[in-house]
Amino acid sequence: MAIKIPYQYRGVLFALIMSGCTALIVSGVIIYLHSEFFLDFLQLWAKGFITAWPIVFIAILTIAPLVNRLLDIYFENP
Hints:
Blueprint: H1 10-34, H2 38-74
């Protein structure tokens, strides 16, 4: 049987995983579109990702609760 993480950490873990995926994809696309050589791309992507991830993580932690509250106004509870 798997050990489960307490539910109170779900939001932070969601933000961590979501921000990592988002930062990886967005930084990769932007750097790909602006780099000329493949070796430059890998180095720039790593730097861009390391810079973007904490910013996206904080943004998701900040914005997600606000968006959820806004959506609660317009959607019925199940």
